[in-house]
Amino acid sequence: MTKFVLIAALGAIANVSAAALDAVKLHTAGDYAILSKTGITTASTSVIKGDIGVSPIFSPAITGFSLRAVTNDATPPITLVATSPQVTGNVYAADYVSPKALVLTGAIGDMEMAYTDAAGRLKPDHLDLGSGDLGGLTLGPGLYKFGTSVSIPTNFTISGSSDDMWIFQVAGDLTMAANKKVILAGGALASNIIWQVAGFVEVGAGAHMEGILLVKTAAHFRTGSSLNGRILAQTAVTLDSSTVTQPPHVGRILAQTADILV
Ligand SMILES: *[C@@H]1O[C@H](CO)[C@@H](O)[C@H](O)[C@H]1NC(C)=O
Question: For the chain, what is the domain count?
Answer without folding.
Answer: 1
